[in-house]
């Protein structure tokens, strides 16, 4: 009897939990010139490199108008006269200055959609220049943050103003002018000054540098990060915040942990955010030191579910475990910890420390971070609990389109970058062993420390580290929607054959199987038939239904069920594929 385990579960888009803004906005198959301007390194972007942003923003809660400046320090890397600045409609650039020795010289500019072209004088190559952009307007208001983002104008439970921004995927140019491309992070960090009514507190990334004396009922808070930062991670939080501080004894010494929450949530936060301690402990063990000691670690209560804002992670999970009280794996393990504390903080290593140049390669952010949930579960509850969790999340995989998106047009691939990407990494962890996988994560975070990367760099690094060409695994799981099928057949009572089908050419992923109840062994199927001996003790049990695959790609267990049992315990268990491999198994003949 042929047993094919296919996962066919209808999932509506709205039920899928993503912390990635682009996915819910809608999919594009045709890209516009504006997409290219936004998503590629145009000649008008290529001749200068951002060193530092100093953004100053003053929002008016009543009119929903913001006024601001961004003083950009840029390095001239080659000759150029036309500078592309991104600022999205309906915001307007008022003036652009070149600032030299404190003196400001106006520069001419013109608009082309969301791109603005500034005419610059000839500037010496390798020099650092300051360009100041003055802007204002009513920014796009968030529709359903963080997925459909923009500026968030809301009120807390006591009716007091509460403001923030969510703009991942949509882009930081929705609220401030910048070079809105992931490949160019300000090398020396960023400063964010926020002017607010003196009854409110404003929190930003990194450390609080200064706050002015109240003047005409207003205070300006200035925050600063000294490390490179993604544009979409620079975020103001404005509200009736209070805060508490915890010293964390980490791998690089003392890490300042600061927790900013609305005044009435302080007690709940003190209890729930104890998980940040266990998260840091687990993640430093698996992935290496927290990448931004200089800027500290923060969780900041946000008027949306959450986002990985570097050193000021947005938190909106209502101080309870799970993902808005749900378990994404359906195994029970996901209810034992706070999804937003774990997932969004995991991005500090993958997403913030290591950032992809192009949105198409976002799997590097989301797959590794998704898998950090499994590592956290493993840390806290053991290896089998972690396995249960990652296997449980397979029910969310859609296989609708490839995980890697279209390059150069600000396009993300499939939301499968979460659960399918996590399951791919789980298999790589099996191949490397736990010490090997842990070493890999440490090496990745050290080698690409504070860098932007391509998927090729990450894939090659993993293959080199593994001393094994894993490129076909990446091609299969990241660039196709096909799940490889392990076909097998009985040749005789003593011999079975197996091969890969439904796969990319040359696919040869190793998997773990056990034959006839023997200990697990690694086999490396290819597209050609290979054979395996069936141990003699199993021969007499042989009949047409004696060959059973008991590991299916959809199999999951509850936390209480700790054994990997066959679907029907009465059947022989001659051929078992380890459940940790996300593949389909099919008996032929
Ligand atoms: Zn994420």
Strand content: 25-35%
Q: Which CATH first-tier class of the domain at 31-139 and 175-183 would you pick?
A: Mainly Beta
Q: What coarse outline follows from CA principal-axis ratios?
A: globular
| CATH H-tier superfamily of the domain at 31-139 and 175-183 | tricorn interacting facor f3 domain
Description of the molecule:
By secondary structure, the protein is an alpha+beta fold. Among the domains are: 31-139 and 175-183, Immunoglobulin-like (Sandwich), CATH 2.60.40; 485-587, Immunoglobulin-like (Sandwich), CATH 2.60.40. The chain is built from 11 helices and 29 strands. The strands form 8 sheets. An 8-stranded mixed sheet has the order 5-4-8-2-1-11-14-13. Helix 5 runs parallel beside helix 6 and helix 5 (274-287) packs across helix 7 (363-381). The longest helix is centred in the C-terminal third of the chain and has 29 residues, at 419-447. It is globular, with a radius of gyration of 26 Å. The termini are close together. Mean pLDDT is 90; it is low at 1-26 and 540-572. Bound molecules: zinc ion. Zinc ion (ZN) is lined by residues 19-20, 343, 347, 366, 369.
């Amino acid at each position: 009897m042929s047993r094919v385990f296919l996962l066919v579960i209808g999932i509506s888009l709205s039920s899928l939990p993503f912390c990635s803004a682009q996915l819910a906005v809608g999919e594009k198959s045709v890209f516009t010139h504006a997409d290219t301007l936004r998503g590629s390194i145009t000649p008008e972007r290529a001749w200068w490199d951002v060193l530092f942003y100093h953004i100053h923003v003053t929002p008016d809660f009543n009119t929903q108008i913001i006024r601001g400046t961004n003083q950009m320090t840029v390095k001239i890397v080659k000759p150029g006269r036309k500078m592309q600045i991104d600022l999205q409609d309906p915001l307007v650039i008022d003036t652009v200055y070149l600032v030299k020795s404190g003196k400001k010289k106006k520069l001419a500019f013109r608009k082309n959609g969301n791109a603005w072209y500034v005419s610059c004088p000839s500037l010496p190559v390798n020099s650092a220049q300051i360009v100041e952009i003055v802007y204002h307007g009513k920014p796009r208001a968030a529709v359903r943050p963080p997925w459909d983002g923009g500026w968030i104008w809301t009120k807390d439970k006591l009716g007091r103003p509460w403001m923030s921004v969510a703009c991942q995927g949509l882009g930081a140019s929705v609220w401030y002018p910048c070079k809105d491309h992931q490949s160019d992070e300000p090398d020396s960090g960023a400063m964010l000054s926020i002017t607010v009514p003196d009854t409110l507190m404003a929190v930003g990334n990194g450390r609080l540098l200064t706050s002015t004396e109240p003047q005409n009922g207003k205070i300006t808070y200035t925050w600063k990060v000294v490390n490179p930062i993604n544009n979409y991670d620079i975020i103001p939080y404005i509200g009736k915040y209070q805060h508490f501080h915890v010293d964390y004894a980490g791998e690089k010494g003392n890490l300042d942990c600061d927790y900013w929450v609305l005044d009435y949530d302080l007690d709940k936060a003190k209890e729930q955010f104890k998980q940040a301690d266990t998260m840091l402990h687990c993640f430093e063990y698996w992935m290496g030191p927290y990448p931004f000691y200089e800027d500290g670690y923060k969780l900041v209560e946000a008027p949306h579910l959450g986002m990985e804002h570097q050193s000021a992670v947005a938190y909106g999970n209502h101080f309870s475990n799970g993902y808005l009280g749900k378990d994404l794996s359906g195994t029970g393990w996901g209810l034992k910890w706070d999804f937003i504390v774990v997932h969004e903080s995991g991005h500090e290593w993958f997403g913030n420390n290591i950032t992809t140049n192009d949105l198409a390669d976002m799997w590097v952010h989301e797959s590794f971070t998704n898998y950090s949930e499994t590592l956290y579960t493993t840390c806290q509850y053991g290896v089998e609990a972690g396995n249960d969790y990652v296997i449980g999340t397979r029910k969310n995989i859609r296989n609708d389109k490839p995980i890697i998106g279209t390059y150069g047009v600000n396009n993300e691939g499939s939301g499968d970058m979460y659960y399918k990407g996590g399951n791919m990494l789980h298999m790589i962890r099996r191949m490397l062993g736990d010490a090997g996988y842990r070493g890999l994560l440490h090496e990745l975070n050290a080698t690409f420390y504070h860098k932007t990367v391509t998927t090729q760099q990450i894939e090659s690094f993993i293959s080199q580290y593994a001393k094994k060409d894993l490129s076909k695994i990446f091609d299969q799981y990241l660039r196709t929607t096909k799940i490889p099928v392990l076909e097998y057949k009985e040749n005789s009572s003593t011999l079975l054959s197996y091969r890969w089908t439904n796969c990319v050419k040359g696919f040869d992923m190793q998997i773990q199987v056990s034959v006839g109840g023997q200990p697990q062994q690694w086999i490396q199927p290819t597209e050609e038939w290979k054979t395996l001996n069936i141990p003699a003790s199993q021969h007499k049990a042989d009949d047409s239904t004696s060959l059973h695959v008991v590991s299916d790609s959809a199999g999951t267990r509850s936390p209480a069920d700790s054994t990997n049992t066959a679907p029907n315990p009465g059947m022989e268990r001659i051929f078992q594929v380890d459940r940790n491999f996300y593949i389909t198994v099919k008996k032929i003949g």
